[in-house]
Design goal:
Strand content: 25-35%
Strand order of the largest sheet: 7-6-5-10-17-16
Largest sheet: 6 strands, mixed
Shape: globular
Number of domains: 2
Helix content: 10-25%
């Protein structure tokens, strides 16, 4: 007897058993037949995916040397790149189902990540730098990573600050991470239908400051969520979910659209091929307004500028609760840096942060990339945020 066939039979038996024990969903509409005509959008970098291993190794070596140059020039005792990687992937998504859908597209993913370690005067600091895109632009890669790496000098000798209430300025990458977990999933029609989103019953109402406009944009060049189709063969479209503070659109999969008798929005995505498609952002884009990190720092009377956090994934979109631990920050008073900060927890509620506590949204917009890799959103593209009255737990 063929062992492989026995294994297949056993798997099928388990599948049938699982289906029989699962309650039938009366709202299940079946699979999407494929809806709409896809717009042409660039998702594949042919040049990047054809790079040889030798070319990739040379690029890694070049970036490692470039990362060290500016900090060495500023007199550090030691500068080491302790970790580095470059991955260039070519993938294809094909959607075929029994309802006649047969669509797909190819895409590339470029991931570069390095950790720079610096030592000076008995103090040390590490700074992680990343570049995640649909394409590879070597000049952009070098510029972004070197700029981020040079910031490592700012955090030598970092310590906690006293607990209290502070103004907080979030660097764009940090804003992306926090928004991806504390807010983005709340726009899912499934979360709204099931009562797990604070946005339930608020369509057409003002929920944030007029400064806040959030767009689901599947055509944002270079971002990981850029694509012509969702995972159900429905075409993607650009649309505001928040327009000048007003909740205008929820995100639909084919399933949720049929439940609410409305057209699907092209936002049905699977974390894995075996999982049900769930509504999710393609690219979460917070529209820029004015100023940026440097301008906000100059205007700060007393606050913390946050460059890196961990634990942001503990934020809760069902309540809007924000929680993150600052690993790289600066205490600023009257526009001057007082000291580097680490080991403090920032907390609050994202609905308050983006309404009564919102001082300003910058125009220094950046593609996160990492948010896309975590699959909470396709990607997040945000500027800096200046928030007042933020609870900070420190020393």
């Amino acid at each position: 007897m063929d062992t492989a066939q026995v294994d297949v039979d056993r798997i099928l038996d388990k599948l049938v058993s699982a289906v029989k024990s699962t309650p039938e969903d009366p709202n299940w509409p079946g699979f999407s037949p494929g809806i709409g005509v896809p717009q042409p959008v660039k998702t594949l970098d042919e040049r990047a995916v054809k790079m040889s291993e030798e070319e990739c190794v040379e690029l890694i070596k070049h970036i490692m040397e470039k990362l060290k140059e500016p900090v060495i020039a500023r007199g550090v005792d030691k500068a080491l790149v302790v970790e580095g990687e470059l991955a260039i992937m070519r993938s294809r998504i094909t959607i075929v189902n029994s309802h006649g859908a047969e669509r797909g597209f190819e895409f590339s993913t470029v991931l570069a990540g390095f950790t720079l370690h610096v030592e000076k005067g008995g103090s040390s600091a590490d700074k992680s730098v990343f570049y995640v895109r649909r394409y590879l632009d070597e000049k952009e890669l070098e510029r972004i990573l070197v700029e981020e790496g040079e910031k490592s000098l700012l955090f030598l000798g970092a310590t906690p600050v006293e607990s209290g209430v502070y103004d907080v300025v979030l660097e764009p990458y940090v804003a992306s991470e926090i928004l991806s977990y504390s807010l983005a999933p709340a726009f899912s029609a499934l979360e709204i239908i099931e009562g797990r989103s604070p946005l339930r019953g608020k369509e057409g109402q003002r929920v944030f400051s007029e400064k806040v406009t959030i767009i689901d944009d599947p055509f944002y060049e270079g971002a990981l969520g850029t694509r012509p189709l969702d995972d159900e063969a429905v075409v993607t479209t650009s649309k505001p979910v928040i327009d000048r503070g007003v909740f205008t659109n929820m995100l639909h999969s084919y399933y949720t659209a049929k439940r609410l008798k409305t057209p699907p929005t092209g936002n049905g995505f699977r974390r894995t091929p075996a999982m049900q498609a769930m509504p999710r952002f393609t690219n979460f884009v917070l529209k820029p307004v004015s100023g940026g990190l440097e301008e906000f720092m100059r205007d700060l009377k007393r606050g913390i500028v946050v460059y890196e956090v961990i634990g942001y994934w503990m934020s809760d979109y069902t309540t809007g609760t924000v929680k993150a631990t600052v690993t790289h920050g600066l205490l600023v008073e009257n526009g001057k840096i007082v000291k580097p900060v680490k080991g403090v927890v920032i907390g609050g509620n994202i609905y308050e942060w983006l309404s009564k506590n919102l001082v300003e949204i910058g125009k220094d917009i950046k593609i996160s990339g990492l948010a896309g890799l975590e699959r909470v959103v396709g990607d997040a593209v945000t500027p800096s945020l200046w928030i007042s009255n933020v609870r900070v737990g420190g020393a």
